[in-house]
Amino acid sequence: MRREGLDLTKDFAPPVSHRRGFFLLQRLRYGKGYTQPNMKTTGANLLRILLERQGIRTLPGIPGGAILPFYDALHGSAIRHVLARHEQGAGFIAQGMARVTGRAAACLATSGPGATNLLTAIADARLDSVPLVAITGQVSQTLIGTDAFQEVDTYGLTLPITKHNFLVRSAAELLDIVPLAFQLAESGRPGPVAIDVPKDVQNASVEIDTLPEPGRRQPPSPCADEPIDALAHLLAQAQRPVLYLGGGVIASNATELARTLAHRACAPVVSTLMALGAVPPEDPLFMGMLGMHGTQGANFLLEEADLVLAIGARFDDRATGKVAEFCPRATIAHIDIDPAEIGKIKTAFLSLVGDAADILRRLLDRVPPQTRPTWLARATELRASYPLQHPPRNQDPLHPVNLCRFLGEQLPADAIITTDVGQHQMWVAQAYPFRQPRTLLTSGGLGTMGFGLPAAIGAALAAPDRRVACVTGDGSILMNIQELATLAEENLPVAVLIFNNTHLGLVRQQQELFYQQRYNASRFATSPDFAAIARGFGVRGIRIDPTTDPLAQLSHALAAEGPCVIDIPIQTTENVYPMVPPGAANRAMIIAQPEPTHA
Amino acid sequence: MPNQKTPQSTQPTCNVLRYKLGSAKPALLELIVRNHPGTMSHITGLFARRAFNLEAIVVVPLPGTETSRILLHLADEPKLEQVERQLAKLHDVLSVHHRNDLSPEIFNRMISQIPAAP
User: Fold this and answer.
1) pLDDT tens-digit series, residues B90-112
2) Cβ of residue B61 closer than 8 Å to a chain A Cβ
């Protein structure tokens, strides 16, 4: 706990008999947990103290009736409240902070619509295993069940989309619930936890003897030695091994270990969307992303592999394609911290449950350096044979692949890129050179349009010294565009780049490829002037003119200080390739514009 | 529905047990859970959310403790292992045990001892 976290004169109203000097002496004697005995405070104040002790310093949210006692307790606190303009924005700002730091972030909303607006951000955190503590106000307990104003069953609504959730029934319960919520959010496979706090609990007075220790990540029980020995044996026996890295590699800070293993075992690496940045694209063993919009090299290599070692990956359908035909020749070994992921989609020959970093560290002790020249030559050949298809930069500088590569050159290696969801997201995943973990923040599992801008704000709040860019589309940006107001207010160095094709591009693409070009509801008949909108919010707005050296304009726009929105017109009919048709095996990738099916 | 005594045949007819013999074998799981509000929602919600079928459920608090004992009757499908693992992940579930020594008949016996509402 930091000293500024506990303002004694404000937190408690001590009886006259307790002198501050005596308290500090006791505090020195008994440590941080010591508070003055039998101190009285309110539930709201206690919640604030507990959050401060968890290390929460930035708290995005929106106030409302049922959470006002807590907002009152925040007054003058060490916690800096960031006022979002929609609760979903607050949730994604917190997610941006959590995804960059790996530590649980909190967000705040009132009851009723405040809580329901948070749900998408909570569900998103669940599917991408992001540690998040969502705190909502609730109507007073006497009103619960009466259909009171702004009453909704937040507990019931958050139940299936959280790791765990709480409805606080007394102020004293906060002493257990708050540390436990943070512990659950960060331990094992991280995820969201919701705490619903009725207004009467916030107002209730509570006596405290000692404050609990802050909730911390609990180390998982270590994996036994036998499966690690067996895995080392499998690796030694294999002739064509591949490492299949998922987001868990980043969550467990195991990226360096995974890379070391790849080189020691001579195993090429494929990555899911969530693991991009774990291995830099320059690494000779890196085959790129697998799956629906992955590289052909990665997907073909998996067809030939005889051992696939999945590390912190969950065999998501976007990665595997038709599951029955995924890695048809391979023995599957699966490392995951979540026992329920083992065998959920694909039966693993060997499963190792535990922390990926711990398992890899112990595995490396057992894996001698190996050489597989034929297999490496095959991987190199596949990678060289199937590069991303795109026109050269001088011919089409605003082709999305060229744009992403150009951004990669303009931004430093530790720049944080957030995306929204759609074609631009896949182009970024395919072409932007992610060299460090936690530099790509993207909504992978839930696929939430509207994620990018608030997540970028959160990233910039959590990493104030780094460049942040949000790559978005003209469809996605409109889903949380109100957060431009938050961005302007916080004046954060976030560049919002809109790949503007005046379409819901990925929908248009699917209608073109799989619905015989029966386009429906995928084209925007009117397209707003995003630069003017940005200026309306007090943010620099630029529209790139495609006719006169657009990349120079882009470079110029990125060089200036402060937040900006850069509207970049791109081809409306550009598709993301390769693409595996939904439900097909990964080998069935489409790689070019097919012939029109009718005239 | 008439409250008939379950015939001692191989084919249970009681409305509690809807499974057909031969299609899926029954499986019984015993859970020890924290006894506080919301625990039942987490357990039954899990079955809805993951599209698992739950045939019968009995919950009784364990006297003198803050825990309850739950007996679940499920179909012994390939998903059963996944069901167990998802149950074990719930914070309020303290333990999950197979009770292959019990027969699903016990659910019938229990319900048949209770007179039906008039």
Assistant:
1) 999 999 999 989 998 989 898 89
2) no
Instruction: Identify the pLDDT of residue B75.
Output: 85
Residue A408's contacts (CB-CB under 8 Å, 6 or more residues apart) are A431, A432, A433
Beta bridge partners of B71: B30, B58
Nearest to A61 by CA among A96, A98, A86, A97: A86
Rounded Cα distance between A82 and A74, Å, is: 12
- Closest residue, chain B, to A340 (C-alpha): B85
**pTM attached to this predicted model:** 0.91
The amino acid sitting at A505 is G
- CB proximity list for A525: less than 8 A, separation 6 or greater: none
**pLDDT value at residue A308:** 98
Q: Considering chain A, what percentage of its residues have pLDDT values greater than 90?
A: 91
Q: Which residue has the higher pLDDT, A258 or B9?
A: A258
- Complex confidence, ipTM: 0.82
Q: Is B86 in Cβ contact with A156 (below 8 Å)?
A: no
User: Which long-range contacts does B51-54 make (Cβ < 8 Å, 24+ apart)?
Assistant: B52/B79, B52/B83, B53/B77
* B13 contact partners, CB below 8 Å, separation of at least 6: B4, B6, B7
Rounded mean pLDDT of A354-369? 97
- What is the pLDDT at residue A76? 84
The whole-angstrom separation of Cα A377 and Cα A284 is: 11
Which has more confidence, A595 or A520? A520
Helix (H, G, I), strand (E, B) or coil at B55: strand
Tell me how far apart the alpha carbons of residues B114 and A507 are, in angstroms, rounded to a whole number: 57
DSSP summary character for residue A173: G
The position carrying tokens 């190199």 is A380
pLDDT band at A3 (very low <50, low <70, confident <90, very high): very low
- Write out pLDDT tens, residues A53-87: 999 999 999 999 999 999 999 998 999 999 999 99
Distance (Å) of CA A82 to CA A483, A574, B117: 11, 38, 57
Helix then strand count (H, E) for chain B reads 3, 4
- Find the helix packing angle between A87-101 and A452-462, rounded to 10°: 50
Nearest C-alpha of chain B: how many angstroms from A89? 26
Which pLDDT score, from 0 to 100, does residue A36 have? 61
Backbone angles phi, psi at A105, to 5 degrees: -115, 160
- Residue of chain A with shortest Cα separation from B84: A340
Query: What gap in Å lies between CA A108 and CA A92, rounded to an integer?
Result: 11
Contact residues, B window 7-46, toward A, CB-based 8 Å cutoff:
37-38, 41-42, 45
E runs forming strands in B53-92 = 54-61, 67-75
Contact between A163 and A193 under an 8 Å Cβ cutoff? The reply is yes
- Got the DSSP string for A521-545? S-B-SS---HHHHHHHTTSEEEE--
Question: Collapsing DSSP states into helix, strand and coil, what is residue A438?
Answer: coil
* Interchain proximity B85–A165, CB inside 8 Å: no
CA distances from B55 to A161, A296, A429, B95, B107 (A): 24, 46, 45, 20, 10
Q: β-strand A241-245 against A307-311: which pairing, if any? A: parallel
Residue A526 has pLDDT above 70, yes or no: yes
Q: For residue B30, which of B79, B66, B67, B5 has the smallest C-alpha distance?
A: B67
| Tally of CA atoms within 13 A in the half-sphere of A182 that contains its CB | 25
If residue A136 lies in a helix (H) or strand (E), which one and from where to where?
Answer: strand A132-138
Pick from B49, B81, B85: which is nearest to A160 by CB? B49
Residue A70 near residue A44, CB atoms below 8 Å: yes
CB distance A63 to A52 below 8 Å: no
Q: Which residues are CB-neighbours of A440 under 8 A, at least 6 positions away?
A: A276, A277, A417, A418, A419, A428, A429, A432, A434
Find residue A136's DSSP bridge partners: A109, A196
